[in-house]
Amino acid sequence: MVRALSLRLQLLLLQALIVCVVTLGAGIVTVWIQESAIRDSYRERMVGVALSIARLPVIVEAFDDPAPSVAIQPVAEVIREASALTYVVVTDLDGIRLSHPNPDRVGESVSTDPSIPLSGQVWSGTETGTLGESYRVKVPVFSDGDTRADDEGARVIGAVSVGVLESELAADLQSRLPGLLLAFGGAAVAGVFGAAWVSALIRRRILGLEPDEIAELVGERETMLHRLSEGVIRVDHRGVVTSANDAAERLIGRGPLSGRHADETLDGPLLQVMEDGEPEGRLVLAGERPVIARSTGLRDDRGRVVGGTLLLRDHTELHEALRSMDGQQSLTEGLRAQAHEFANSLHVVSGLLELGAWDDAREFIAQVRPGGPLDPGPDAAALGSELTALLSVKIARSRELDVALEVVAHGAPPPESIGDLITVVGNLVDNALEACRPGDRLRVTVDATDSSVRVRVDDSGTGVPDALRAHVFDEGVSTKGTHSRARGIGLALVRRVARRRGGEARVERSPLGGARFEVVLPVAERVS
């Protein structure tokens, strides 16, 4: 129970603390603003009262009397009581009081510095006088009853000082504090209840889990995700990759993927699978690697873009195993046909011997060429054992299909290009054999120089339609069906190999009547 409430209590206490601190800070600032507003209000009122007194003709004329306080004291007291001020004091040029709330103080010197108003300027501030600490305003009195020092002939003849005790200002502020405290107290209570609601809402959103449980789940998810042999890529509604495991980066050959847009990281077919969705899986190329791609699609049942997940399974080993099995099957069929022909030859020799035709038997044996069906020709010896073995298997396959396969080789390709040549030649020959009919011809030409290796595969089959030539190397495009999921991988792989090496792959009409596929693979310059 304690553990179940710990996160809620932590959130509640933290938010309540934040609410209280913010409320307290706002209250202090509000009280300061209120105090400043009260002080400004008093100042404006006191300035108005002081200037009004300084302009009164009875006050100005009284300065010429032998006893000016007789006329000034009653007027000042009436104005003080009417204005609810603590004091109204009028002084002459020597700082002698001509009025005061305490009549006994009349005729005495003021207790504060009168030099600023006597110099013709208005002053306001807090000072301590005979009545205590007060907030006061001091203005000059001019001889013409005006308050402008720039009038011609005007001179300062005295000063007027009005003020209110600081204790009265504090009392005015305190009278307004209950309302402020009630407002801020209500805000704090509402904030605490809001914090409790937010804490409960957050807890429901995280399924009642504690922070350590969430961290443990995230760690398990990351461990499981990155240890999967299948690639997993998650894309959000904006098309940005939010997560991708190590297998995905290895299969695609790019990294890191997270945080990048799917258009930048996924090839065209992979991006199409991601956008359209493919629950059953589709064979596509990730670089030069065949993979099975599955996706949930980026849209929900209502057509809204919500993001999706792409799963990638490496198909390279299975693809190579199928190709190897196909080659072994072709080789087996060729050997079976060769054994059948050899058995027929033995029957002929046996018959001739039974008939006593010794010379005819000897001549027939001399005409039999051992190993002919699997011999790629004398030119193929320079191609290396791996490529020669591949061509031998293709010859066996072509004999089974009744297709005449000819191998022409010029020069020896460098060892570092043999792997790519096996991929290129194997796919091009397979593609040509599928396009040929019984009785057609097929010629494989390999020209190796110091700078490049050129592979040409000509056939006398059906050829490639003109409308399909521009897209025949695109992934998923096949002469057996322009967009077949089961086909369209071999030629796309050939072009990617050529582009990786800085070469090119193209198709055109063959002199044999069918199609000519030509691939140029540049050879890296060797350092002696």
TrEMBL record:
<dbReference type="Pfam" id="PF14689">
    <property type="entry name" value="SPOB_a"/>
</dbReference>
<dbReference type="InterPro" id="IPR050428">
    <property type="entry name" value="TCS_sensor_his_kinase"/>
</dbReference>
<keyword id="KW-0812">Transmembrane</keyword>
<dbReference type="InterPro" id="IPR004358">
    <property type="entry name" value="Sig_transdc_His_kin-like_C"/>
</dbReference>
<protein>
    <recommendedName>
        <fullName>histidine kinase</fullName>
        <ecNumber>2.7.13.3</ecNumber>
    </recommendedName>
</protein>
<dbReference type="InterPro" id="IPR003594">
    <property type="entry name" value="HATPase_dom"/>
</dbReference>
<dbReference type="GO" id="GO:0005524">
    <property type="term" value="F:ATP binding"/>
</dbReference>
<dbReference type="InterPro" id="IPR039506">
    <property type="entry name" value="SPOB_a"/>
</dbReference>
<dbReference type="GO" id="GO:0005886">
    <property type="term" value="C:plasma membrane"/>
</dbReference>
<dbReference type="Pfam" id="PF02518">
    <property type="entry name" value="HATPase_c"/>
</dbReference>
<feature type="domain" description="Histidine kinase">
    <location>
        <begin position="421"/>
        <end position="525"/>
    </location>
</feature>
<keyword id="KW-0808">Transferase</keyword>
<dbReference type="InterPro" id="IPR000014">
    <property type="entry name" value="PAS"/>
</dbReference>
<feature type="transmembrane region" description="Helical">
    <location>
        <begin position="180"/>
        <end position="202"/>
    </location>
</feature>
<dbReference type="InterPro" id="IPR033463">
    <property type="entry name" value="sCache_3"/>
</dbReference>
<keyword id="KW-1133">Transmembrane helix</keyword>
<keyword id="KW-0902">Two-component regulatory system</keyword>
<dbReference type="InterPro" id="IPR005467">
    <property type="entry name" value="His_kinase_dom"/>
</dbReference>
<feature type="transmembrane region" description="Helical">
    <location>
        <begin position="12"/>
        <end position="33"/>
    </location>
</feature>
<keyword id="KW-0547">Nucleotide-binding</keyword>
<keyword id="KW-0067">ATP-binding</keyword>
<dbReference type="GO" id="GO:0000155">
    <property type="term" value="F:phosphorelay sensor kinase activity"/>
</dbReference>
<keyword id="KW-0597">Phosphoprotein</keyword>
<dbReference type="InterPro" id="IPR036890">
    <property type="entry name" value="HATPase_C_sf"/>
</dbReference>
<dbReference type="InterPro" id="IPR016120">
    <property type="entry name" value="Sig_transdc_His_kin_SpoOB"/>
</dbReference>
<keyword id="KW-0472">Membrane</keyword>
<keyword id="KW-1003">Cell membrane</keyword>
<dbReference type="InterPro" id="IPR035965">
    <property type="entry name" value="PAS-like_dom_sf"/>
</dbReference>
<dbReference type="Pfam" id="PF17203">
    <property type="entry name" value="sCache_3_2"/>
</dbReference>
<dbReference type="InterPro" id="IPR029151">
    <property type="entry name" value="Sensor-like_sf"/>
</dbReference>
<keyword id="KW-0418">Kinase</keyword>
